[in-house]
Specification:
21% helix; 180 residues; 4 helices; alpha+beta; OB fold (Dihydrolipoamide Acetyltransferase, E2P)
């Protein structure tokens, strides 16, 4: 397992995931590009892609970006040794980049690297890139309603399934206000 693997992290409540996030944003994916391939301290090769999102709103926290109005999010394609090739995963994502609006709970890559003792000079610690904090940290909007990931983790995300998207955004804002 890779330390900080988002699929291995879950939060018991909306308040917990909001407070663990450096930023909560709404936006739409606009492009995907191959990301760096880096070796972690455990000698795993980490294969990444970068998905750029057009920002609609920064609901909580703040973001750093090279290009105003966008945010770069690192997408893990796979982990393995040098014999692995994850180009097929990149092609799969690139050919099916979603156009749905999303809410994302994000961790800044540099802050994430500090938390998990990754080298700060690694491309994976780029302070202008973010990562989704957990499998609970990405909600789609379809026809104005919240759509959960295929296999939601925990109970609290299920409370938003099918609700108006604006209600999820309002709940995040309320969480920020209550915990400020």
């Amino acid at each position: 397992m890779v330390p900080g693997d988002p699929e291995a992290i879950s939060y018991p409540t909306l308040d917990a995931i909001v407070s663990a996030s450096d930023a909560v944003v709404t936006g739409t994916a606009s492009s995907i590009a191959p990301g760096p391939t880096v070796e972690d301290p455990y000698h795993n090769i980490i294969y990444l892609a970068t998905v750029t999102f057009r920002l609609d709103d920064v609901v909580a926290g703040s973001v750093r970006s090279v290009e105003p109005g966008t945010i770069a999010v690192s997408l893990l394609l796979g982990v393995g040794d040098a014999a692995h090739d994850f180009d097929w995963r990149y092609e799969q994502f690139a050919s099916s980049l979603p156009s749905d609006r999303v809410v994302m709970f994000l961790s800044n890559n540099q802050e994430w690297a500090k938390q998990y003792d990754f080298p700060l000079d690694s491309p994976e610690a780029d302070p202008m890139h973010y990562r989704v904090v957990s499998g609970q940290g990405y909600f789609r909007e379809l026809d104005g309603r919240v759509v959960l990931p295929a296999q939601p983790i925990g109970e609290w995300p299920k409370a938003f399934d099918g609700l108006p998207f604006v209600e999820l955004v309002a709940a995040v804002r309320a969480s920020v206000a209550a915990n400020s």
